[in-house]
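User: Hi! I have a protein structure encoded as tokens and I'd like to know what sequence might fold into it. I'm fairly new to this, so please keep things simple.
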């Protein structure tokens, strides 16, 4: 009998899709930290009605498939957005909705345009779908460059407003210019819109031929762990995204909890959005007193330019506080991003910053 070790088969990289070969797994430091203000989620907890719905979920919601396309949730989101249910599509987080929309409206080899800096996953979605990704720098005032984005001739153009990681809104004039000049689909990511105190484009999206507005329940509604995103737009476009994203993308328990948050606990959500806005201004003042210059923000975080973002974030983690480092952002250089939470948490951030800067 042979004593040779069995040969362990290794997957040949040539079998993988060419577009995937240079993609790295999304990776950020999520090791436990006493105070974590690194990921822009709701640091105030979840709406009480949503927690109650989660605890009371029937076993049947775990043993059976959820509704095909989350019809009840679409109806509740349509009411929230002021549109019809046929003008809403849901997904497993706004990432899923964005990826599905990109896939629905592009062929391999076509162009996806995005501002730079902006949401880091969008160029990866473009690469995964075999697209050419055109990154267009923000203007000197950190607004989107509508003319340059339109000039790419992109089949799909992505805009994040308020933008991640800068926190700034795209100006109304720039967005209207892009809608006029662009010939492709525009994906407007308004994940942080509830913190902007601006109307946004959500309600008017169905009346605009080529606009899809994407939002999430991960931020203001505090349901990041349940992964619920949605898009609003013309029913014809929404139907194509629905095909692309497929059935069963929102779990039954997630739909139950989201319905409770949307229909029973809006006052809780509104109150904590107001607290974020108040603490955002207070934190910005405190950072300026430390000699730092946070960018103006319309979101639930602040971006702060620093000398060495990676080193500063590492030292703050040693002080028990996790922030998100952004080395070498286009047009900005190094920066850290700080999510806004209850004021005692912000005091801990400031104390760690003082020790680190010293």
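Assistant: Happy to help. Inverse folding works backwards from shape to sequence: for each of the 358 positions I chose a residue that suits the local structure. Here it is:
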């Amino acid at each position: 009998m042979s004593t040779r070790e069995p040969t362990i088969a290794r997957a040949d990289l040539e079998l993988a899709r060419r577009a995937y070969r240079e993609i790295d797994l999304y990776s950020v430091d999520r090791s436990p930290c006493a105070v974590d203000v690194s990921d822009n989620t709701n640091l105030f907890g979840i709406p009480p009605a949503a927690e109650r719905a989660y605890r009371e979920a029937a076993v049947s919601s775990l043993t059976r498939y959820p509704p095909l396309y989350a019809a009840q949730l679409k109806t509740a989101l349509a009411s929230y957005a002021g549109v019809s249910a046929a003008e809403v599509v849901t997904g497993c987080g706004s990432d899923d909705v964005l990826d599905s929309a990109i896939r629905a409206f592009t062929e391999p080899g076509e162009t996806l345009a995005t501002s730079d800096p902006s949401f880091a996953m969008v160029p990866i979605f473009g690469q995964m779908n075999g697209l050419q990704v055109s990154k267009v720098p923000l203007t000197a005032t950190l607004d989107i460059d509508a003319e340059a984005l339109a000039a790419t001739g992109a089949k799909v153009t992505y805009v994040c407003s308020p933008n991640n990681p800068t926190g700034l809104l795209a100006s109304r004039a720039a967005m209207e210019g892009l809608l006029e000049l662009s010939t492709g689909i525009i994906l407007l990511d308004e994940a942080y819109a509830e913190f902007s105190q601006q109307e946004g484009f959500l309600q008017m999206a169905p009346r605009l031929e080529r606009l899809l507005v994407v939002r999430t329940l991960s931020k203001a509604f505090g349901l990041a762990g349940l992964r619920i995103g949605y898009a609003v737009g013309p029913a014809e476009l929404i139907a194509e995204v629905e095909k692309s994203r497929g059935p069963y993308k929102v779990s039954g328990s997630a739909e139950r909890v989201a319905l409770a948050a949307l229909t029973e606990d809006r006052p809780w959500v509104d109150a904590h959005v107001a607290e974020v806005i108040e603490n955002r201004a207070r934190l910005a003042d405190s950072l300026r007193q430390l000699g730092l210059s946070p960018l103006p923000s319309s979101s639930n975080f602040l971006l702060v330019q620093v000398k060495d973002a990676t080193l500063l974030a590492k030292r703050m983690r040693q002080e028990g506080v996790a922030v998100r480092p952004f080395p070498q952002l286009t047009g900005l250089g190094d920066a850290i991003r700080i999510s806004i939470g209850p004021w005692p948490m912000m005091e801990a951030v400031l104390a760690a910053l003082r020790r680190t800067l010293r």
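A useful reference point when you look it over: The longest strand covers residues 333-339. Feel free to ask if any position seems puzzling.
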